[in-house]
Amino acid sequence: MKRRHIGAVAAAVLFCAGAAGASAQFRLDFEVALPVFEGINLRDLGVSGGATISQYLFLLPTIEATYQFGEGPVRFGAGAKTVTFIIESLLWPDAFIEIDLDQVLIRGDLGGGLFLSFGRVNQVPRGSWTWVVPQIDVSFARTSWFRLSGGAMALAPFDKINNFGFLLYVNARFTVLFK
């Protein structure tokens, strides 16, 4: 009896995954963000010797590779996002939902939980697996491949949730869909 239930559940999961995969698209997003206001104290987030991140604020190039589902006004996806600080880069898993209201897009991201660091320093602060990175932005899009946005991003460690940092930004995003 148990084996039948497990088999039925496995078949249902495979059917749903196949149906979702039929409408999925691979998507690459290239973004350049310009921070306009920061509220991040690196020392509060557990980074040794850190003051504020404003010493390091400059253009933040981002690359995101996701599997996108849905082609209508509501799209969602999951993948990985990397942000580079030129000498150091961070990569983390990310999921998004996007609502298309004609030429205005509202996008919410939730990522984190696992960070990989590569570059000159190659050091992710201790306990970073408990960090979450929520992000929201509102975009103006005249085309399907380019948009101008403004938004907010936070870095919130679970163990010090009251000491979360945030960044307000404006950005340009280029999107490439592979059907």
Identify the notable features of this structure and list them briefly.
globular, disordered N terminus, mainly beta, 179 residues, 1 helix
Summarize the structure.
The chain has 179 residues and is mainly β. It is built from one helix and nine strands, in the order αβββββββββ. Helices cover 12% and strands 55% of the residues.
Write the layout of secondary structure elements.
Elements lengths: L1 H21 L1 E15 L21 E10 L4 E11 L3 E14 L2 E9 L3 E4 L11 E10 L5 E12 L7 E14 L1
Antiparallel strand pairs: 1-2, 1-9, 2-3, 3-4, 4-5, 4-6, 5-7, 7-8, 8-9
Structure description:
The protein has 179 residues and is mainly β. It has a single domain, classed as Porin. Helices cover 12% and strands 55% of the residues. It has 1 helix and 9 strands; from the N terminus they run H-E-E-E-E-E-E-E-E-E. The chain has one helix spanning 2-22; strands spanning 24-38, 60-69, 74-84, 88-101, 104-112, 116-119, 131-140, 146-157, 165-178. It has an 8-stranded antiparallel beta barrel. The radius of gyration is 19 Å and the shape is globular. It starts with a helix and ends with a strand.
